[in-house]
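Bug #77: duplicate submission created two jobs. Keeping one. Sequence:
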Amino acid sequence: MNKKIENFLATEKVSVLMTVYNTAAYLDRSITSIINQTYKNFELIIIDDGSKDGSKEIINKYKNKKIKKFFFKKNIGRINALKYAIKKSSGNYIAILDSDDISNTNRLSTQMKLFKKRKELMLLASRVNFIDHKNKKLFSYPERNDVINFDEVIHFRNIFPFSTVIFRKKLLKKVSLFSKKIKYAFDYDFTIRVKKKYKIYLIPKILGNLTLRENSLTYCKSLSNQRSYDLINILKFSKNNFNLPFKIKLFIYLKIFRESVSLQVRKFIKMGA
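Kept job's structure:
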């Protein structure tokens, strides 16, 4: 390995942020996947956001000095928990891992080497495998063709899995991690807003496993309307702030129309219920 890269990897700390809320069944494997990283210059900041399922006891089992633990008595929500984690971070790089997901052992080293080689990049993510609660592989995401064309596809579909996202912390001086308009799809919104100002990249390698479970926020029916509102706002931002090819703009218009119709249908059904 090049000595400059070796020195870079030895001196640049990564702060891995993990917010926890009632994910005791998956927590051990998530924490272990960070502890076992081949990249050793990291800190793992775990925020237990008022869990009631024994997550706190699992977190407290780990005595590793690289782990910073914070326990909230009441649930304050993922966004506020992440804000707190960022305040407690000391690394120049911020990585995300949800508490039910897994990072491959070479995730951080692969991403940090790319940051060193390509200084213009400010945010990275990668492909993932989706798995079930028994660790069985379901499918890979995004598809290879989407990775090749990520620079366009990202404007109408979120193909940057948040549990693989890592970014240079200094970009937060110009791009807020959260938008007041977005309450659910803040990860997608953040990626698009970063892309507006900086270079981003989607690594074609699979660097993690994401757990697909029915009780996750993604499948929460009560959030369906909020997901539609968020997606419509994000799509409009892309349409209005980027010089996109006609084909991509057409995809955006069609998706806005579809989400708007779905939103109205759900409202109509609720009124008639």
